[in-house]
Amino acid sequence: MAGMRWDSMRVSPEGESTTPDDALFAQPPVVRTFDSPQFAGMTFYEVHAKSILNRVPAVSRVPFEWTINPYRGCSHACRYCFARNTHTYLDLGAGLDFDTKVVVKINAPDLLRRELARASWQGQPVAMGTNVDCYQRAEGRYRLMPGIIRALTKHANPFSILTKGSLILRDLELLVAAARVTDVSTAVSVGFVDQPLWRQVEPGTPNPLKRLEVCRTLNNAGVRCGVLMAPILPGLTDSPVQLAATVEAIAAAGATYVTPIVLHLRPGAREWFMSWLSATHPELMPRYRQMYAKSSYAPKTYQDDVCAQVRELAKAAGIGKPRTTDRTPAHNSGHRKLTPQAAVEPQQLSLLA
Ligand code: SF4
User: Fold this and answer.
1) Which atom of ligand 1 is nearest to the CA of 353?
2) What is the pLDDT of residues 220-240, one digit of tens each?
3) Where does the pLDDT of residue 26 fall: very low under 50, low under 70, confident under 90, or very high at 90 and above?
4) Chain-wide mean pLDDT for the chain?
5) Which residue from 104, 74, 73 is spatially nearest to 89, judged by alpha carbons?
6) What is the pTM of this model?
7) 231: Cβ–Cβ under 8 A, 6 or more apart, which residues?
8) Helices 172-179 and 208-220, packing angle to 10 deg
């Protein structure tokens, strides 16, 4: 984990940090809880990270090189979240701990201002929301993203944000201002619009229909926004009727693209998701065990089939075609073009779902 380690931090039963003098943090972490119902049962670990621009290892298949992750853990609590296992690096659990114990790099904006000003920084595109959601509930309190966006804007540094959080609209004006000087792309992830399933599988997230409203608002404001249709859950959200309903809703929101991504289950996420599945849909267990027996990914034939259906539906719905109401920001035209997200292989993006 770049820039921060946790090895020597322990939390006492009373909830106080018992961190010894830790050379890996600029200051010992502060452990905090808040009374408001929004944060009931949650603990925040405020840390001063040593660096904030993280280089993605070259072996990684993701289509970006640099990321900013102001948080660790995510109150959106998606059962399938691939980042769950990273919590175990912090001596925390990949299940409930991931949902309720969130690390906050409270010096992220200051650090970023310094790192962007370094002569060695070349202005490469920076991806956010690629590990955990930077617009999760904690951001409402800590407000790290405005400072981060302002710093990137000041340096005309291209960036992208992937989120399930409607809180991104709080920063709409900042995003519009950033899009005037650099490439800004955003994406929301909406794998399905089934309401009961949403409450069970993504219990801490805004309603998927609300997320699609976010997509519409961003595009209407001139901040381009697409949709990762992720994850598509075998046997739960992959019937032709369900796929059509989701793609229709995505099209109606004016998404600039849709990228289908089938569920993948890495260690950490696998155990947490499967425990939910066995309790709620035991009849699906044999199928899932078989599909994910050899790999974190579903069989390629299944992925190809589902993704082809989504692409057909998206084409029929006109997703990606210019809209008469499109407001393409002329200010972007002089800047370096980023790879269109739609051209990125779903398998690569599946690392982000
Ligand atoms: S999938 Fe995204 S929104 Fe859901 S818990 Fe993980 S980081 Fe948060």
Assistant:
1) 1
2) 999 999 999 999 999 999 999
3) low
4) 86
5) 73
6) 0.87
7) 80, 191, 261, 262, 263, 264, 353
8) 40
Q: Which atom, in ligand 1's list, is nearest to the CA of 131?
A: 7
Residue 239 in contact with residue 305, Cβ under 8 Å? no
Can you tell me the distance from the alpha carbon of 155 to that of 304, in angstroms, rounded to the nearest whole number? 40
Joined together, the tokens standing for residue 85 give 């296992």
Ligand 1 atom at minimum distance from 80 CA = 1
| Residues within a 6 A CB radius of ligand 1 | 74, 76-78, 81, 83, 132-133, 136, 164, 205
| Strand-strand pairing, 30-32 and 224-232 | unpaired
How close is the Cα of 81 to the center of ligand 1, in Å? 5
Sign of CA dihedral 6, 165, 54, 109: negative
For the record, the structure tokens of 157 come out as 């540094």
Strands, E, within the chain: which ranges? 30-32, 43-47, 53-55, 66-68, 71-72, 101-105, 126-128, 159-163, 184-189, 224-232, 258-262
Whole-angstrom distance, CA of residue 284 vs CA of residue 278: 8
In angstroms, what CA-CA distances link 2 with 43, 44, 89, 104, 136? Answer: 22, 20, 12, 15, 21
- In the predicted structure, residue 328 carries a pLDDT above the cut 50: no
Q: Is the dihedral of CA 232, 236, 239, 243 positive or negative?
A: negative
